[in-house]
Amino acid sequence: xxxxxxxxxxxxxxxxxxxxxxxxxxxxxxxxxxxxxxxxxxxxxxxxxxxxxxxxxxxxxxxxxxxxxxxxxxxxxxxxxxxxxxxxxxxxxxxxxxxxxxxxxxxxxxxxxxxxxxxxxxxxxxxxxxxxxxxxxxxxxxxxxxxxxxxxxxxxxxxxxxxxxxxxxxxxxxxxxxxxxxxxxxxxxxxxxxxxxxxxxxxxxxxxxxxxxxxxxxxxxxxxxxxxxxxxxxxxxxxxxxxxxxxxxxxxxxxxxxxxxxxxxxxxxxxxxxxxxxxxxxxxxxxxxxxxxxxxxxxxxxxxxxxxxxxxxxxxxxxxxxxxxxxxxxxxxxxxxxxxxxxxxxxxxxxxxxxxxxxxxxxxxxxx
Length: 368
Prior knowledge:
This protein has helices spanning 6-24, 29-64, 68-85, 91-105, 108-128, 133-154, 173-177, 180-183, 197-211, 215-240, 254-257, 264-277, 283-305, 309-322, 329-344. The two termini are 33 Å apart. Helix 5 packs antiparallel against helix 6, helix 6 (133-154) packs across helix 9 and helix 10 runs antiparallel to helix 13 (283-305). The protein folds into 2 domains: 1-193, no CATH class; 196-368, no CATH class. The chain has 15 helices and no strands.
């Protein structure tokens, strides 16, 4: 859990108490028990309140997601409290603003976007409430994929409202009213907002299945990613007003890049160029430019984690052959050479520097 500002001071005071007593004489068993009880009580007061607030937030979000009307009403209550009451604006100002904006805010598209924002915040809370982030991600993974199934299916109906889903969940009015920025633990790998779709796959979903070395799940995730990106980016290209930059699949874990002779700095530069190039993506552009990138990532993971590296290497070669003019083709060829070298000599190093010092550095080419 996130440590509140007062915790260091309390901990320091407890240390002073213990060591101050020790300088004169050791604590008696009774004194030691009393100090331990005090620390436990302080810990409960600090962290128990956070847990209670987060659990209450879960219940609130579940309630407002029961219907569009409930979502709308809670959103309006958030706006009134945070942007009018809290800053001392008059009731007349609130009524005037509501009358001027009610039709827009109450629209089906706007409320639907708010529901997706609230659902993502609920998923974020579910991850944070587990003892570890990895355990939280594992628990919500089926719900997370379902979320993107629904979002991709509704994306063309969110015209003009999709940018709500770029906003970090903890910066939404829902999170602000629920005071989650004060009680939510920090998360290392979980993404802060639902869009762009590529970010959740590259940052959360695919790394989760790669860590498990679950080849079928990795391939299924790539198939889902292709569908989800296709629907969301095609909608943006038709005038959905989003046109978000998308990420190149990073694909190979850091521990493997050295063995393939790949330079992550090169990939970052390539990603920046790709981001700039894909500000707007039409369906035709997606098929021509983006889809080969996704197919490359899927087959590259098949080399690393699948049962038939030779067949997957042939598939990678076919992607290059069919996309010789693609901006990524030179990088793909570089990766293919590194992958092929490892496959031909799994115990060796592509750069001829000898074997790795640890088994952890060896690429996993088969499901274990």
